[in-house]
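To fix ideas, we give here one paired sequence and structure record:
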Amino acid sequence: MGMQLNAAQRLDWLRLIRTEGVGPRTFRTLINRFGGAGAALEALPDLAKRGAKRVVPVTRAQAEAELEAAARIGARLVAMGEDDYPKLLQAADSAPPLIAIRGQAAILSRPAIAIVGSRNASAAGLGFTERLARGLGEAGLVVVSGLARGIDARAHKASLASGTVAVLAGGHDRIYPANHQALVESILDSGGAVLAEMPMGWEPRGRDFPRRNRIISGLAYGTVVVEAARRSGSLITARFALEQGREVFAVPGSPLDPRAEGTNDLIRQGATLVSEVEHVTSAIAPLLGRGDFEQGAGQLALDRPDLADAPIFWDELDGIGGPAPEAEEKLEGLEPEEAEPADDRARLIAYLSPTPIGTDDLARAAGLSVRIVQTTLLELELDGRIERHGSGAVSLVS
């Protein structure tokens, strides 16, 4: 049995971690120095006097209001060290002291694999994600992802029956993107779980997505990147996995497809190539039951994540709250999360890639009727934009 906070201790933990300037590492330093969250809260005013910045802990009433708001939607705050706190996440250096959990906490004790990738995924990438997630679920693994559009959403949907966990960038009452509220309900109804580090009412900002990504990788024995451009949030997740001593996997793609540049680079740097489920299960089999990870144990030649600069690297920019002011110029021109192609032709091109894909799979991925897809493909063929292959498959001509 792990430790168990009483109501007063949980309130103190919440007040301390919600205090501006107190992150996971500072939280642990304060707890270790003063012996508990309550004592740390009492010491903060004196500590702040020595610095230039005024530190004011959140009030007891504010913390109580957050706990009540969480309870109203069925979420509860679990502290690091308690039985329901995921043991793999606890092993990560930057693990959040408190996480709010909705759904079945028992799923967090099962072995898990993270699947992440581009939100603007190709139809081929989405199809492979579905097969991979379903196969990993059949092998007894929980699939973890970040609820984003594209690869994340497909991974969740394909593993509903076997078990999936979604990690939010904002609060539980601020699902992002908003049209994935139904997916959240499906995850909860199927026995999965949804996690959030941020407080109730928190609208996710650009800088919150890398914070979420280190939880995604921290929950899993390994992270599979399906599609990712070079400047991609999925690569930040891979870097966190590496830093946490977890396995990093990548699905190869056509060198002509920008969405494969990041994954191909990962493979070149030493990530395990994945083209079937067994490539993942065989690699993590020796880790199951061990549960101990040495920080930085990986051997990939990847840069360590830098959260200060992270907003310019990921592909999940949301437009909510906006990026840090100093990053706005660098972010100019990147499209928001909810951007969709303006017409059927542009929408179809977005899902095509140099990898051949069947017409039915393409129609399903694009959410268009087969008739519209066939007509649009004919137009694209006449324009020399696509190439036809056997069995009705088509690919984009670069």
Notes: Confidence is low (pLDDT under 50) at residues 291-299, 301-340.
